[in-house]
Amino acid sequence: MTSYFQDIAPVTYDPQAKGLAFRHYDPQEMLGGKSMQDHLRFAVCYWHNFVWEGNDPFGGQTFDRPWFPADTMDLAKRKADAAFDMFKILGVPFWCFHDHDIRPEGASLKESHDRLNEMADYVQEKMENGGPKLLWGTANMFSNRRFMSGASTNPDPDVFAYCASTVKSCMDVTHRLGGENYVLWGGREGYETLLNTDLDRELQQMGRFLQMVVDYKHKIGFKGAILIEPKPQEPTKHQYDYDVATVYGFLKRFGLEEEVQVNVEQGHAILAGHSFEHELAMARTLGIFGSIDMNRNDYQSGWDTDQFPNNAPEAALAYYEVLKAGGFTTGGTNFDAKLRRQSLDPVDLIAAHVGGMDICARGLKAAYAMLADDALEAPRRERYAGWETSDHLVEGKTLEQIADYAESRGLDPQPVSGRQEILENIVNRYV
């Protein structure tokens, strides 16, 4: 144990505890023949917890971590030591990273790759000595000023090539570390103004880039999923991967709907004008559900605030959709969430995750009970029951034939209550 977390004991399940403990998350509790740990597949992200310095647009660094600024390999390894200590304290089965998170930038592209591989060796040893597995890796192609006009969509072909090399290197490391997914997070894939943007060219570049990523996945034998994370209006006003439906249309255009899934984030769903459960239901319905980033937004803010989840009804509705999708396969619950910049102490990092894990567990149990009791599905089936004997209306009929059907029977359908408030009351009984 490093000195940073040395006074914090591993967190255990104890519903009666007064201090740090799980009150709802019992990793071994069984729900339908599957442990809660296997249902939720918790992961801790590397970036917000160990890279972010606590700055915002109006203020600088507030956190004082002993590995900052992590601009040398020694400091990067010190950061990794602290990270794996925290993973052990929380008992999480997975973690996630960007290449930029775990290695300092090199003086050249090759040096950056060499440093990533050196750090991969370092963390692999920790993983093999009882550390968590890798849920997914991804490449940071948004922070550096070279990406200010996009990554794969950049007007400069040299940036496109730079990104290809970066993703290849990161996919290699993700594969070597046994990662179960690889994520493409298009933080800069969008535009500010059409005055200097060629939409068709940029979309073609983005589509070809993703096709190459999928081809390379198969070439190296990577068995995990390729995931896109929908991302609306942040930081650019028009993002090409705005929401789940937009991503699906993009995948269909380039013949990738069978190859790529989505990693859906709660905060991004809100920025896109949707609810989290809507985006998850859409991903499930379109057959591209993969994984989730669990956080929450401040509903009074127009920005992705990445706060830890604390709303049990929202979590219940989210996991309801996850369960309806058949649960996670390669995906899981990654906490893409960060402390408030006033939360300075090591214990704040632990407490934030404990609270988030408990909320997710509470939501999962409610969702599982609602499904087991048929509490929402029975009234849903009743609402659409008429279609059980009316499928002939949409199977092989023309518009004229259906019009004749309605007129010949003198149809005069009357509205039926949607019973939304009753259904909301049902949900509230479970949470």
- From the coordinates shown, what is the CATH architecture of the largest domain? Alpha-Beta Barrel
| Class per helix and strand makeup | alpha/beta
Strand content: 5-15%
CATH topology of the largest domain: TIM Barrel
Euclidean distance between termini CA atoms = 37 Å
Q: How does this structure look, described?
A:
The chain has 431 residues and is α/β, with parallel strands linked by helices. The protein folds into 2 domains: 370 residues, Alpha-Beta Barrel (TIM Barrel), CATH 3.20.20; 53 residues, no CATH class. The protein has 15 helices and 10 strands. The strands form 2 sheets. It has an 8-stranded parallel barrel with strand order 1-2-3-4-6-8-9-10, surrounded by 5 helices. The chain has a two-stranded antiparallel sheet with strand order 5-7. Helix 5 packs parallel to helix 6 and helix 11 packs across helix 12. The protein is globular and about 80 Å long. It starts with 35 loop residues before the first helix and ends with a helix. This is Xylose isomerase.
Task: Outline the fold blueprint.
Blueprint: H1 36-40, E1 42-45, H2 47-50, H3 73-90, E2 94-98, H4 99-102, H5 109-128, E3 133-138, H6 157-176, E4 181-184, E5 190-191, H7 199-220, E6 225-228, E7 238-239, H8 244-253, E8 260-265, H9 266-271, H10 276-286, E9 289-293, H11 312-324, E10 333-335, H12 346-372, H13 377-383, H14 399-408, H15 420-430
Parallel strand pairs: 1-2, 1-10, 2-3, 3-4, 4-6, 6-8, 8-9, 9-10
Antiparallel strand pairs: 5-7
Helix pairs in contact: 3-5, 5-6, 6-7, 10-11, 11-12
EC number: 5.3.1.5
Subcellular location: Cytoplasm
Main location: cytoplasm
